[in-house]
Design goal:
Residues 124-293 form the Radical SAM core domain. It holds the Pfam family Radical_SAM. This protein has helices spanning 7-10, 58-73, 113-116, 139-142, 152-164, 180-193, 209-215, 231-238, 243-258, 284-297, 345-358; strands spanning 45-46, 100-108, 121-126, 148-150, 171-174, 199-203, 221-225, 262-264, 269-278, 303-307, 319-323, 330-334, 362-363. The chain is of the alpha/beta class. The chain is built from eleven helices and 13 strands. The radius of gyration is 20 Å and the shape is globular. Helix 2 (58-73) packs antiparallel against helix 6 and helix 10 runs parallel beside helix 11 (345-358). Strands 1, 2, 3, 4, 5, 6, 7, 8, 9, 10 and 13 form an eleven-stranded mixed beta sheet that branches. A two-stranded antiparallel ribbon has the order 11-12. The structure holds iron/sulfur cluster. Iron/sulfur cluster binds at residues 75-78, 80-82, 84, 86, 91-93, 130, 178. The site of iron/sulfur cluster has 14 residues, from loops.
């Protein structure tokens, strides 16, 4: 198998860090709660853990295989609902049926400490996406079909290499919403090869309930974004009409499957939902609505990462030519100027305060040395 360009050197390199995907550029912020919870609360401590895919019966596994192929033949698997036979044509995601397009496979140390642990998270970055976020910090991967094509069996072989050579704590499927059938088939193939680490489904939450049903029993951790609250914002910035309602249904379904995030005594997350919200400049009111909704409608024990590392990227801040109001003069302007800056500490603080006020208390926090911590 040919692995293209620079990513080849990074594959299975435990020191690999993707500069575009490092989520831990923390500032010195005050702790979220006056009382820091040290250690793992007993309710979220697991004695041992067997991944859910290793508990599936052979009959259930066979049903999932059939369902995956059925979805590919008439794909409505994400909210784009293209109704195409992916063996013959492609939908909005531009990805067919037999393979998934992958950009990078590597142990990754840019995730939350309980996901990356000591050895890294075995990350598989899929090319393509069913959203078109104008600020996407992975736009060179997500908005283009760059990378190499892998069948589900080849994907499974890479999971095994990540487990055996990389000694990773989990297999972390990044931006997989548009290749869920291939992902489901790959997990089933890897289970037959001896995979034994948890599966992390790293999603924008722009999933369908049918897609999440296919993943039920195969995924251990949902690493889920909740991006924006207002439909006008999702339409403008994510290029999706129904993001918020979809994310609400998706997060509820994920929580129903795997519950609140739980850990083994080594501090590594094994099962549950880890919810991410990236605070956006000038959109802290939407962040406050999101954390309130999560506390009131999903779980006050939800493990949540309120992320501060927004920076203008992709289309944001790019110069464009616009027509002036007088005399047809043309002047330079920048695109999406309202989010063309970093997030202010007070914006971040207001979302954090709202989360605490709503009753959330399990936060992913920075520590002093940015090393592994709970
Ligand atoms: S996964 Fe792709 S083909 Fe299927 S509905 Fe979504 S965008 Fe369309």
């Amino acid at each position: 198998m040919e692995i293209s360009d620079t990513s080849q050197n990074d594959l299975l390199n435990p020191t690999f860090r993707s500069p575009r995907l490092n989520h831990h550029h923390f500032r010195n912020l005050q702790p979220l709660t006056s009382k820091r919870f040290i250690g793992i609360p007993p309710a979220f401590l697991l004695d041992d853990y067997i991944p859910r895919y290793n508990l599936l019966s052979s009959v259930s596994a066979a049903k999932k295989r059939s369902l995956a192929y059925a979805h590919l033949q008439n794909c409505n698997l994400c909210p784009r609902k293209c109704s195409v036979n992916r063996f013959k044509e492609t939908g909005v995601c531009l990805i067919g049926a037999e393979t998934a397009k992958v950009n990078v496979i590597a142990p990754h140390r840019g995730e939350e400490p309980c996901i990356q642990g000591f050895h890294g998270s075995g990350s598989v970055f899929f090319s393509g996406c069913n959203l078109r976020c104008v600020f996407c910090q992975n736009h060179d991967i997500a908005h283009q079909r760059k990378g190499f094509d892998l069948t589900p069996e080849e994907l499974a072989e890479w999971y095994m290499k990540l487990q055996q050579v990389g000694n990773v704590h989990n297999i972390n499927l990044v931006t997989p919403e548009h290749v869920v059938p291939q992902v489901a088939l790959s997990i089933l193939a890897a289970r037959d090869m001896g995979l034994k680490v948890p599966i992390v489904y790293n999603t924008s939450s722009f999933d369908s309930l049918e897609s999440l049903e296919l993943l039920d029993g195969l995924v251990d951790i949902y690493l889920a974004d909740f991006k924006v609250w207002k439909d006008s914002t999702s339409k403008r910035l994510l290029k999706a009409d129904n993001y918020t309602a979809t994310a609400m249904d998706s997060v509820k379904a994920m929580q129903k499957q795997v519950g609140d995030l739980s850990f083994t005594s080594d501090g590594i997350a094994k099962k549950g939902v880890l919810l991410r919200h990236l605070v956006m400049p000038g959109k802290e009111d939407e962040g406050r609505e999101i954390v309130r909704w999560l506390a009131e409608n999903v779980s006050k024990d939800m493990y949540i990462h309120i992320m501060e590392q927004y920076r203008p990227d992709a289309h944001v801040g790019k110069k464009r030519r616009t027509t002036g109001s007088e005399g047809g003069d043309r002047k330079e302007d920048v695109r999406y100027a309202e989010i063309n800056r970093a997030v202010k500490d007070e914006e971040l603080g207001s979302v954090r305060d709202a989360a605490v006020a709503a009753g959330l208390w399990r936060f992913c926090e920075a520590n002093e040395n940015s090393e592994f911590h709970l």
